Amino acid sequence: MKQKLLHALFVLLIAALLTACGGQAPAVPTEPPSGGGGGDMPQNTPLPEGASVSKDILLDPALAVDDDSLRVVSQMYEGLVRAENNEVVPALAASWTVSEDGLDYIFNLRPGVKFQDGAALDADAVIANFQRWFDPANALHGSGAYEAWLTAFKGFKGQSSVDGIEKVDGLTVLVHLNQPDKDFLAKLTSPAFSIVSPAALAADGFGSAAGVAGGTGPYLLGEWTAASLTLQPNPAYWNASAIPADALTFALK
């Protein structure tokens, strides 16, 4: 991976030179989000106020597979990128660069973002999440099926189309692929690939106080009873203009 990191640093240097000269880094082609061989990936579709959701809803993004769970977690958590009008647009990654061979994706994280537990979003947090999805031997992986990861990237470490992830600096990560994948960014728009606070992951606290503090999204978990689930606006949301005005309450069916 040392050669890959050197290659990544070269790509970053070229991008910086282009910017300094008034140019732009090469445009990143985007495709409508798709499952890449496993059917359409669930999209970040908000649930309307008053909708009912399954009482078996799961708020761990990486393990959630049903539409209700994915739509709710997409309000609480965010990924590196998101889907908007069938295009891939920045989310927790403010920008990215793709190498000419399509194997290296360098993500520049948005500065100043904090998880709801107060921890800063950084390269280490992103790597912790990727390693959890990617490596069954990772301490955070647990016994979950990780169906979204397997559908999108064909296997875990050693078998996946994703070769690994590296830290370039505190706000930059490099994801390396084994083969080009034109849908790679589109796949990452799935709520299943949301970035969760490493502290919340370590506590395995989805639905508890730790889970409440695990995201970066516009909502956090307010109350979860046998009859309903309430999401409260996140007053510290990094995108101040998008902080919701009201809570959302859903009946459980």
Quick rundown:
The protein has 253 residues and is α+β, with helices and mostly antiparallel strands. Helix content is 25%, strand content 21%. Residues 10-43 have low confidence and may be disordered.
What labels describe this entry?
253 residues; alpha+beta; four-stranded antiparallel beta sheet; 10 strands
Structure description:
- It is built from seven helices and ten strands.
- With 253 residues, it is an alpha+beta fold.
- The strands form three sheets. The chain has a four-stranded mixed β-sheet with strand order 1-10-9-8, covered by helices on one side. A four-stranded antiparallel β-sheet has the order 4-5-7-6, with helices on both faces. A two-stranded antiparallel sheet has the order 2-3.
- A hairpin with a 2-residue loop joins strand 2 and strand 3 (87-90).
- Mean pLDDT is 83; it is low at 10-43.
Report the radius of gyration as a whole number of Å: 18 Å
- Report how far the terminal alpha carbons are from each other: 48 Å
Strand proportion, as a percent range, falls in 15-25%
Low-pLDDT parts are 10-43
**How are the strands ordered across the major sheet?**
1-10-9-8
Q: What value does the average pLDDT take?
A: 83
Largest sheet: 4 strands, mixed
Our count of helices gives 7
Bin the helical content. Answer: 10-25%
Secondary-structure map with pairings?
Elements: H1 2-20, E1 52-53, H2 67-76, E2 81-84, E3 87-90, E4 93-98, E5 104-109, H3 123-134, H4 147-153, E6 162-169, E7 172-177, H5 184-187, H6 198-203, H7 209-212, E8 219-224, E9 228-233, E10 248-252
Parallel strand pairs: 1-10
Antiparallel strand pairs: 2-3, 4-5, 5-7, 6-7, 8-9, 9-10
